[in-house]
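Hi V.,

You were right to ask for the full record rather than a summary. Here it is.
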Amino acid sequence: MMNNCLDFTVAIPTYNGASRLPELLERLRNQNNTENFSWEIIVVDNNSTDNTAKVVQTYQETWQSPYPLKYCFEEKQGAAYARKRAVVEAKGKLIGFLDDDNYPIFTWVAAAYTFGQKYPHAGAYGSQIHPEWEVEPPQNFQRIAAFLAITERGDLPLLYKPSKKLLPPSAGLVVRQEAWLESVPNQPILTGRVTGNMLTSEDLEMLSYIQKAGWEIWYNPEMEVYHRIPSSRLEKDYLIPFFKGIGLSRYVTRMVSIKPGFKLIALLGYMLNDLRKIAWHLLKYRRQVKLDLVAACEMQLFLSSLISPFYLWKAGYLNINSDDKSISIYE
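Predicted structure:
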C-alpha cells in the first residue's frame, strides 16, 4: 500500500559511503527549480561499517532546506534490499535513485519530476550518465563502458523497447512507486554483489518485471549525472569478477519476459547465441583474449552467460518463494 504525500523522493542506497556522501548531499541541498513540488531525500544505510550514519546525522543537524533529509538502516546487505527499503520508506510518487558516487547536475531533481508528469505511462526512466574517470581508461574501453553505468544516448528522450533487450542502469534511475509495488516480486532472485556473492544485475531484474507488466521504460537526457569511477575499477582484479557476475546473472534477466511454455526454447536459443559469440570472439581476437583487458572482459561475459542457468540451478537460486509472490524460473 502506498503512503504518498509527496511528489518525489531521492533515495541514496549506500554502503560505507561516508567519504562520498558529502558531495552528493551538497549537490542535493543546492537543487534548483524545485519550488513547485514537494520532495524529500532518504539515505538508506545498507549495513555500513564506517561512520555513514554520523555523516548523515551531522548534515541533519544543520539542514535548513524545505525538503527533509531522512536516514534509515537496512541490515540485509545487497543493493536490491536497500532499494526495496527505499520504496517502502518513500513518501514520493516518484523515487529517484542515486548511488553515493553519482553526482547530479543542479536541475536533476526538477528534470526528473517534470519527466514523470509528462510521461505518465513511464514506470521507470534513466539518466544521461557521464563518466568522471580518476585515470583515463584504455582506448578500446568504450566497448564495455556501458557496463559501468555510463549512459550517453543522445539529447532526445528514448523509449527502451522490449524487443531491444536493453534497459538503463539503476544509477540515476527514477521509478514510479506504483509500478514497483504492482510489478516487482517481494523477494528478488538477484540481490546485488555482497561478500561471497558475485551475482549482480539486480536492477535489470527489477526493471524487467516493470516492463513485463506493461509500463514504459525511458531514457531522459535532461537528467544528467556524473559517475565518479576510481582507478581500481579499471583493474583486471575488479573487472573480471565483475563481468563474471553479470554473465552468471543473465539467465534470470533473460527469462523474466519469456512465457512459461517457451522458456526451454529460449534457453537453447540463448545458449547457441552465446556459443556463437565465444567462437567469433576467439577467431577475431585470438591471443588478445588473454592479453587485452577489454577482450578478456568480453570473453568472461560470454562464458559466464553460457553457464548461467547451470550455475544458478546448482547454487539454489532458481526457486525462491516470498510471502505473497512466488518466483520460479521454471514456471
